[in-house]
Write a structure and sequence with these properties.
The protein has helices at about 35-45, 60-75, 95-110, 120-140, 150-160, 165-170; strands at about 10-15, 55-60, 80, 145-150, 180-185, 185-190. It has a single domain, classed as 3-Layer(aba) Sandwich (Rossmann fold). The longest helix has 18 residues, at about 120-140. By secondary structure, it is α/β, with parallel strands linked by helices.
Length: about 190
Amino acid sequence: MKIRLNMSNNTLILLRHGQTKVDSILPIAQWVLTEAGEQISDLLKEVEYFQDVDIIICSTEPKSYQTIKPLLDKLGKNVIKYEEISELQRPGPLMGYGKYEETVKKTLENRGQSFEKWETANHALNRFSKKIEEIDGLFEGKKILIVGHAYTMNLYFAKLLNKLDDIHKRLETNKFSDYGIIKNGIVLKDIASL
């Protein structure tokens, strides 16, 4: 389904970071890529569609930068980092997998409520959307690669496609390093695989 947006004449490629190593000592926002995640990131530098990007942007989280570093090196480009495109904020102690997945589901399905002191999905979506719109307004006719995170990117695409009620189901279709494309304000490739 193609949706027309009121945006500049840019191509936006939103890429989810690579596979992340769980580290119970560090806050989630400081986690890094696994060895497999690093290998996939190294392969991303060969993806033909990424070879002619004009601008590369990532969140301030290390896993985003690590994902795009091989491409940056290959293309000889610098990266612009923005905190606003970081993941939905999840402070507090690391939870067990079942509790974590339950909190994700509740957070995404009840977007105005905070669970376990997490940022609300609505707040994360608004923060992310404003920054993407700002980035899009800064440039004209550019191919912009934006490396970010599963929850905020899925929320954004669901908003654009008017599918926020399916957000948790959409999220479950994602893999690390999946990407979606918006060109001339039209969603050409959804980040979800529904």
